[in-house]
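anyone seen this seq b4? input:
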Amino acid sequence: MATRLVCRSTCRSRLVAYLPSLQAAVHHMRAFSSYDERRQNTRHMEEPPEADSKTVWPDAILGPFGPTDKRFPLPGLVGARHQLVAPKQQELPFAKGLSDILSKELPQDRQAKVIVQAAANAQQMSEAEEDDVLLDDLSPSTLDTLEYVAQDCPELIRKDFMDLFPGFDVSRGRFTVITISQKTDNDMSAWSVDMELEREELLEQFVTAAQEICSFLQEAGFWADFIDPCSGRPFLGPYTNSTMFETDERYRHFGFTIDDLGCCKVISHHIWGTHAYVGCLFTNAAYNHPIIQELTEPRTYDEEECDQED
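predicted toks r here
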C-alpha cells in the first residue's frame, strides 16, 4: 500500500514538509545523495584569453609567421626590462599622527547596532507568527506522522550556540536549524510505561535517521550535526558542557511552546500539542539548498520498501 507525501513551503526563510514516517525522510535524502557527485563530475572549460590582453599568442594557423608580441622585438622573444615592468601606482599620502576617532567604533555606534538588531529580531518574530498562521493551512493528513522544518537560525541567538558547537564557527556563514517532530500515540507530559517505551523507540529511530541525514549533508560538502536527546549534547562534535534538551527555551524561536507544569517542563507542538517527540539538527547548508528542498518534491512511497531499507 502506497502513502502520499504531503509537503508545502512558505515564502519566507522556512521550509515545511509533512511525511508519513521518519523512514520516508531518510529515503528521500538517500535518493538525492548523489547530487554533489554529479556536480563534482561536471567539467569546466578554460576561458580563452581576453581580447584586450597585451600578450599576442601564437597563431594556430600562421605559426611563426603570425603577429609577434611588440614587447619582445629581439630574436628569441627577448625584450627590454622596462617594457615588462608595470608602472608604479602613486601612493596616497598618509596623514601621520591622525587620531583614530574617525575609524574607531564609538559607544553610540554600538548602541545603534543593538537597536537595529533588536528591530530585525522583532521583524523575524513577526514573520514567524505570520508563518505560524500559514502553517494552519498546511495541516498534515491522517497518514502523516512527521513534520520536517528547515529554517535560518535567528541572528540574535546564534551566540547561544557557540558553546554548544565548539568545533564549528556558527557566527559566520549559513546556520540552518532542522527540527523533526514525530507524532506520538501517548501524551509526553504524563509518564507511563507505554509512554516510556514509545519514547525509547522514537529515540532510536531519530538517532539512526539523524546520522544518515548528517552523513548525506557531509558527503555533499557541508557541516552537519544533531543533538542527542539523551545527553542534550552534539552527537558528532567534540564534547562540551553546554546542553540543549527538548525543553530548552531556544526551541521557542523555532515555533514550539515550552509549557511549565510546575513539577516539570514539556515541549508542545503547534498541531499535535504534547503528543510529539522533537529532535533537532544543525547544518551550514542553506534551508533552500536542493539537497534540503528535495523533501518538498512529491513522491510515492511503499511502506514495505521503507521497512526493508531499515
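Residues 1-12, 41-49, 300-310 have pLDDT under 50 and may be disordered. The helical segments are 22-31, 35-40, 107-135, 193-219, 290-293, 303-309. kinda curious what u guys think
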